[in-house]
Amino acid sequence: MAAGTTDDPYLLTAEDVEDAPVRPFAILKRIGPGLVTASAVVGTGELIATPVLGAENGYLLLWLVILSCVIKIVVQNELGRYAIGTGETGVEALNRLPGPRLRVSWVLWLWLCMYTTTLMTQSTMLAGIAEVMNRVFPSISILVWIWTLTIGTIVLLVVGRYGFIEKISISLVVCFTFVTVGAAFVLMLRPEYFSWGRLSEGFSFHLPQGGLATAAAVFGITGVGSADLINYPYWCIEKGYARYAGPRDETPAWLRRARGWIRVMGADVIFAAGVYTFATGAFYLLGAGILHGLGVLPEGTEMVRTLSNIYTETLGGWSNYLFLGGAIAVLYSSLFAGTAAAARGYADFVRVLGGYDRHDAAARFRYIRIFSAVLLLIPVLYYILLREPVLMVKIGGIAQALMLPIIGAATLYLRYVHLPRRILPRGWITLALWVTTALTAVMMGYSLLRQLG
Question: Which of 393, 394, 291, 311 is nearest to 58 (CA)?
């Protein structure tokens, strides 16, 4: 790393520039933002909503799960490109969109509503971890565990910055993902739950006949959801990609650095997508094979107990504790990384409202600490009022899904109007961005028509 003159990753200076690595192994050593995003992704969507979709529909909607993971990669990549090329955050980018304004863009107000709704998924994470802890230590109630987790996580987030968050997030999710993929392979040896014929049906196009709300939620929450897409530029900036490219001065040196770090960011996106696509596919297969085969659906306070069948029915009864430990890891990684990212978005929203100057690093991180607490207390309130984890995941997922076409359209607008001309994506990437935006609009339009019909 270059000898930087500031600890503020949002401040671009000529002293902090660095050429991007070009060798594959060296590039892999510099990835990270996508894996932080993946740690937030492999949580309620994969552990809860995806197996529920499989339990409701069997293997028939495997295509939807894979499509959900793959299709949004191009939007994530282009928002990362924009962050490196301009140094702007996700909230700053959305604030550039044309249309009505009430202090800030109308899109930011929609984003705020979506994000506040998706805090229901944070509530589900808290409830899931607390349910596991209650099963291990039944003398301590679920609500007490929720408060203990909330206070402990607030402390961790208040003291931690990007490097700390990256290490915690990645380490929590890796082991559980590998074990779950292994359980999916074991599933293939159980003919009562799996056959290649049933698997092939999952790759033929079937529209959801039942569980449409779950299908829309899964499309919104698996892979990178709307919240994750807007969060990704923050992690790219805090990792240093934009700062290493340096202030945009249109010189050949800046162009070389910007293109180099965009390549690193692209590798980061693809590597992370491979991780969460395998994990999501494994969770869906286990839900479709085990839960659908048993005829059970995870509901209410028995959510984790029911979900544990996806391990115990494939690996044996001994794996119940493995599942419980893994569930804590994957849910807590999502809670931790998701709250850290959300706090940055909310703090940035305060800034664009005029709350503090862009380069007031102390004020930015002060607001991040404040929202790290607030955004964990709101999910506790959701839990106290609703206490329906699966329902809350569906509501949060649908809110993210409805925002996807808007984020796709916003990314197209930024590409054509505000992205520096010299780092525009190749033609096939632009085409893929158009196709992605159109497909998400069709998917969400279909879901709404079915709900209203």
Answer: 291
